[in-house]
């Protein structure tokens, strides 16, 4: 008979865990560190807020008078009372024109716009001024001029039939304005300028009635009252 082997059981020593001893000094130090961090975060937040307010001050304040602010909102309200309705009507007209030209597939190239600017610049130069100076007097820029020319050229294409100028109209206009042109003036030299003048007058008349027709056929809802 085989004798059973005895196994020796070895008891494992208990794992000792280190416990942090309570220290009033370390507790005070931790509190101070947390307070210092909090103060740093608060300081950074205040600095960031102040920077944003300084950089974006013009978004809220239009001017300061002896330390008292004139808000941008009060400025906008004042401007709306002075010319808000006219400004809004102009924006509505531009939008109506934009919608109509898209619907009719009418477009104006940049070359056409620049060609017209060159023509206008030549006329202004003949009068002893510059285009930029003339625009500045009207509170406009070249970008504004380009936009207005693009709109005008688009409408001219839509109203092309109504803007035709005949030779008889040119001759009649020349005869009516002979004193303005002076002695020795020849119609051959002024024909194109007269054509453009007559065309401009026809455009103003046709444009007004055309826009009124667009307005009557469009659904326009106002959300502001001036």
Automatic annotation (TrEMBL):
**GO molecular function annotations of the record:** peptidyl-prolyl cis-trans isomerase activity
Q: Which keywords annotate this record?
A: Coiled coil, Isomerase, Rotamase, Signal
Positions the record marks as coiled coil are 142-176
Checking InterPro entries in the record gives: PrsA_foldase (IPR050245), Trigger_fact/SurA_dom_sf (IPR027304)
Its lineage opens with: Bacteria, Candidatus Woeseibacteriota
Task: Report which reactions are catalysed by this protein.
Answer: [protein]-peptidylproline (omega=180) = [protein]-peptidylproline (omega=0)
* Protein name from the UniProt record: peptidylprolyl isomerase
Name the EC number(s): 5.2.1.8
Q: Which Pfam families match?
A: SurA_N_3
The EC category is isomerase
């Amino acid at each position: 008979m085989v004798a059973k082997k005895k196994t020796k059981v070895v008891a494992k020593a208990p794992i000792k865990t280190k416990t942090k001893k309570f220290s009033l000094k370390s507790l005070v130090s931790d509190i101070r560190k947390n307070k210092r961090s909090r103060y740093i975060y608060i300081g950074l937040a205040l600095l960031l807020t102040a920077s944003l307010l300084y950089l974006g001050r013009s978004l809220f304040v239009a001017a300061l008078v002896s330390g008292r602010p004139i808000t941008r909102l009060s400025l906008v309200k004042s401007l709306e009372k002075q010319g808000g309705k006219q400004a809004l009507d102009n924006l509505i007209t531009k939008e109506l024109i934009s919608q109509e030209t898209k619907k009719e597939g009418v477009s104006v190239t940049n070359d056409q716009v620049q060609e017209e600017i060159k023509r206008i610049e030549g006329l202004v130069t003949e009068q002893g001024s510059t285009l930029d100076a003339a625009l500045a007097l009207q509170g406009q820029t070249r970008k504004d001029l380009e936009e207005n020319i693009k709109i005008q050229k688009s409408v001219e294409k839509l109203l092309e039939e109504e803007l035709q100028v005949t030779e008889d109209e040119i001759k009649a206009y020349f005869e009516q304005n002979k004193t303005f042109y002076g002695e020795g003036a020849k119609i051959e030299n002024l024909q194109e300028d007269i054509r453009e003048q007559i065309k401009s007058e026809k455009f103003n008349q046709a444009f007004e009635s055309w826009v009124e027709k667009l307005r009557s056929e469009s659904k326009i809802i106002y959300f502001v009252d001036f």
